[in-house]
Batch of 2 targets.
Target 1
Amino acid sequence: MNSGFFILAADLNFNLPWQNPVLIFSSILFIILFAPILLNKLKIPQIIGLIIAGAVIGPYGINLLQRDSSVVLFGTVGLLYIMFLAGLEIDLADFKKNSKKSLIFGMYTFLIPMTLGTLAGLYVLEFSLNTSILLASMFASHTLIAYPIISKMGVTKNKAVNITVGGTMITDTLALLVLAVIVGMSKGEINSQFWIRLVISFSIFASLVWFVFPVLGRWFFTKFEDNISQYIFVLGMVFLAAFLAEAAGIEAIIGAFLAGLALNRLIPHTSALMNRIEFVGNALFIPFFLIGVGMLINFRVFFEGWETILVAIVMTAVATLSKFLAAWLSQKTFNFSSAQRDIIFGLSNAQAAATLAAVLVGYNIILGTDETGEPIRLLSESVLNGTILMILVTCTHASFVAQKGASVLALEENTEEEGTEETKTEKILIPINYPENIEELINLGTTIKAKKSKNSLLALNIVPSDSQDATKEKAARKLLEKASVIAAGSDNHLTELIRYDSDIVNGITNVVKENKATDLVMGLHKQHGISDSFLGKLTEGILKNCNITTFIYKNVQPINTISQYLIVIPENAEKEIGFAFWLLRIWNIGVNTGAKLVFYSTNDTLDYIRQVQKMQEISVSYVPFADWDDFLIISRDLKSNDALVVVLSRKNGKSFDPIMKKLPKYLNNYFQSNNYLLIYPMQEGFDHPENSDPLDSTSLNPTDQFISFKTTISRLFGKK
């Protein structure tokens, strides 16, 4: 037995660097775990902790691990993940609105480093023109190293972040184009065919990703609902886009970013899929990339001669100064705060991905040999080593600056939201009866709620109190457990409620009152349409007894595959006390899914909705629509991937229209192939819920009513 033990022990090799793949992987995982924990006590950002850890364990440190193919592979995945997340989390409405600002910033952050870098290369470092231009292109590009910090602090929706991310795509593309041109010139390959090939290949690549990827994504998400399959599909699309970018002659990071933009609307920010994407990236792939960057750092070269130190100091100073000037000019141009300037500077100052690509390409281009037979490189070894120091310094500095700016912005946004009771007190009750529609109802609940509210979902199952069947309670608990698992997938906590009652209507009504629910989400069973008695006795009984915002949902396809919502609103809807409250939920759908909202109503009602658009802009359009007798006209505008939302009224409501009685027939005959959502707002004639502060329009003239509405909207939505 002892001899067998020693034989096994003899197979273990602890010589440095480690070769055992299990030992290598486990050691990296423990570094990912403990490095941030230890360095956080010293107030060092997690990103810097991982880079420093990589430098310590790498080939130029204690040589614990080699930067082998596995580290490079996982690091490449992490880099592409950062760019993909940046495209995925960006607010497309703001991105389109701020596209000109992104272009301006992109030119600032490209032209300033190009100018200063070229001059520094020519007159300070005394390089050739081609070498100086290539060196400057390295300063112009940047990597969103600090983006995970921004994301963690919840300020990715800020305009400054949007502009910087958009500008990153512009400056990195231009910088990599300069790299391709300089390399071509060095090899004597620049001609008309080079430009024609580049333009054609880039156009084909961009068209494939931007137009074909969303179609493929929508088809896949509709056909396959398995969570693992969806995640693997998304990861595959990211790397396919990255490969297509490389095939087009540009850097893979541009492909990953464009894939994020293309799939943006198919992966809602509140969805379980988005939670999985962020979790895996932040837990594994991105830390691998940062450790890999740290492994490149060689401190020894700075003791071998002054040339490397001089080059490193000049490169770091020019890169930092030029990026700060670009951020400062953007601040002055767009009237940003100092915190927003810090965000821009922090995100754009870090040099890593494109910089490494450029310096390695330039280092490997040999222009000839000197008198001793040594190769003359386009970028010398001193530039290569100086680049490594520049990466360490800029990544460290950028992370601190970005963290500082993000902390200030997060504090400002939290202060603005302190008065918003809706986020803190919202409680969305979801009665659950059928296993087949649980997921769609929970997904709707997570979509209409505020993103920051993680404990607002309640699931209810009514067990008949007069039943002697013990299996009914077990079945109820299984349904509620399934609902909890689905909610947990999107990082939300769901409260499970079982009610014993002989009357389902009374049971739901009492639970609403006891838990002070603000919203009620109910489903239509897929096997049945709306009955001739409108919604059936159960739903009508609930509407008669519960004066809270009520949503009745019919699901045909997954909510993340909906491209736009057509919202039909009756005349005088703004005069109902619950108008602002259901509008907030619709707005959350637009914010959380990125889908376009198209409002159909009278001009007076649309004017109220435009006030919200001024405070929190999303993709919205307006269609004047006054005559509900022409309701079927809506079906002409409804496409296969659209959803219909109809705001209704109880019989005695101010916005009630007799044509609403015909709605069941319309929905059954003309809208069965689309998702639709029926909304019943809070209305007069009921006791107001204790936790709501509805807008009482009965005693207000039109002008006072409009002012009061703006006050309510400001409180509920909050200015961003």
Target 2
Amino acid sequence: MIDRTREGDSSEASPRFHVLLVGIDAYPRVDPLYGCVNDVDALEALLLDRLSVPADSITKLVAPHPGSSRRPRLPEREPTSENLRAALEALAGEGVRPGDRVFIHYSGHGTQVLPRGTRTAREALVPVDALAGGELLFDHWINDVLRRIAARTDDLTVILDCCCSAGATRSALRTRESAVRFCSIEHPPMLPSVSNKRSGSEADTGLFSSLDPSDPGFLVVASAQSGEAASEGKSAGGVRHGAFTAGLLDLLAAEPDERLRSLRWADLWQNLRARVTSAFPGQHPCLLGRSERRLFGGPFRRQDPGYAITREGGLYRIHAGTMVGLGVGAKVAVYGPSPAFFPPIHSLEEFAARRGLLQVESATASSALASPVGGDFVLGDGARGRLVAPGKGDALVVGLDPFDADLSRFLEAEAPFSIVPVSAYGEREVEAVVGRSPDGRFWIGDDVHGFGAGAIGDQAPLAWVPSGDRAALVRGLWHHARYNLPLRLARRCRDWPGVLRVRVLDARDVGRLDPEELADPPLPEAEPDPHGRYRYRLIDGQPVCFSVENRSSEPMYAQVLNCPSSGRVEILGTTQLEIAPWRRQTFWLRGHLGRAFRCMVSAGRESNVDRLIVVGTASPEVDLRFLRVEESLAEAIGVARREMVPDDEPAERWTATLVTVEIVRGIGGP
């Protein structure tokens, strides 16, 4: 199991707001913008008038065009580099208490520069005076100050409506109607001022590189993916805004005041993203963190993510497809925000929680169109989907060892499993093995775990089931079906064979490297398994990182998943990390360059086998976070369930590489 820090939930009896609004239109030496000040003025009005945020809790830094007819309601300062730094540093200071709610919105230019003597581009926000004696606010400083703010309070929301990518382009002849929030910084004196030095033991590259997308401990919303332009457009009222902020304001305008305080990003994210992308097909907003968090802060409950679902006429769009088992005929149950943790399939609790049931009519690799079963229903806020019946050919293939005809009939009657004799291993793609020990207990394994036919080595089963408890066995196999989805995905990704090269690097000597080496570290590859059963053999506690190389002539969006022996599914590093053609990227813990993952052996086991799956696609729209499984297989089988604590486009192409590593207990540590 890979050690990953988990964040808790925040609450405060009387939380205070700390709001920073930054809008920059009147840039003196680069293309001006025309909707940034409108963005923050509209948010200011919403916070004051609809959320009753105290005026003295809001700091505004704006640069409107001269002669603007706007009438400011609050004191304003210029968004110079000095003022921006001071405002952010204040949020990282003692004035912010645990439980306070910090909300930051930046509308303006983003940029990217290549420091002399390095191969790593640095991203930055562009203050109004960046080319007139001021400084860019570079990624490593932004990431550092956000981490320090998060150390004061874990109720932090950051919205960046700007471009932060070398892939964005501009033209000096760009019109007001086609402005994008990216400016190219080509002035040579700017480049030497970029610092690659680490603070402590880390360096960061990229405005989001320090953020774990599954849960960085706070929330960052980006108006566009890396490599895309963040455009300006008009709201429903005809006012010029950033395309992302315009969509957000329009959706919030339709919400009653009493809902604003409890509104979650999960309640509107799919509609917001679809609104932006339909108007600007090259712009795909992304959300880093838990979508369960509230827009304007406050206590929240973690939940199973599930499939995102949106309405399309008389059908429903499920944002997952054939690569993860949603083929024609598959059935997906639709739930709202509650219960936070999906109940056992076909239980009374599960039936009561359903808003409706969908059946897939057509599907692509990454999405499906479905019709309602048993009548139409209201999708509602925060809709989440879960597979409850796979389509033809997608049932979990379970081998019995020894084969038991009575047990086979029971399992196939209880759930859509395909039961075969374990002797069929090699003839059919057996995905799970159910064995029986001499004491009568069942065990669940697969081609790596367990003592049945098809198992390699002497790995213990994934889980044991109490003797005679067939209901627990069914729950365990349902869970295994979820656990198996990333493994099945790896087998189905065949569009780009050999394109991804994945290496596990031994990071025990990472402290000896220079900062500029960390993006592509010259670290040794981890030791191979001496017995040849797995690719690597790692020691409990050993620090590692993952190097992924794109051996193709096209850019690729890579995501790393881990299927450990616990039965959980983890998302590692930064999802949807863009890898340029013939380039390498290194995945570090939470994206912090130089911060390694720590290998762990689970309690009660002598060793783990982790299966690292690197999935690459040509599309920035593919987000595999719905594959995350936070419950272990043992927890799924147990009597008591764990509570979730509060807290014309190119053709779609997929590729994947699976790396198996054994983590063993060492003597004296690594």
